[in-house]
Specification:
Structural class: alpha+beta
Strand content: 5-15%
Oligomer: single chain
Bound molecules: zinc ion
Shape: globular
Helix content: 25-40%
Distance between the termini: 36 Å
Length: 126
Amino acid sequence: MSRIGGKNTAPELAVRKLLHAMGCRFRLHRRDLPGSPDIVLPAHAAVVFIHGCFWHAHEGCPKAKIPATRRAWWTAKLDANRRRDSRARRALRKLGWRVMVIWQCRIKPEERLKRRLARFLGCAQL
Ligand SMILES: [Zn+2]
């Protein structure tokens, strides 16, 4: 119910591939956690959301333009999505998780994403 934009999207698979290469163990789509994060790394007390720019209303992003038709409806819908995301992040932090959001438009270049993930997870091997 809390998922927007489907499971196992190309950006998700790209992130999972990187984490594998980094030797990080993770679980997918833990529904028992707020917002059912896309990736959960228990050893790092960390969760990762991979957000599609449109559905999660990436601020200032060209991929997150509100459609010209039914503008008010879309605005309300996407605002609600954004608020729900922020509630989930807050709830997760309260439970002691560290939270990272990866936007669809920031997946590439891979080198940059790898550096971000390594920094977030505290992996030295990269
Ligand atoms: Zn974006």
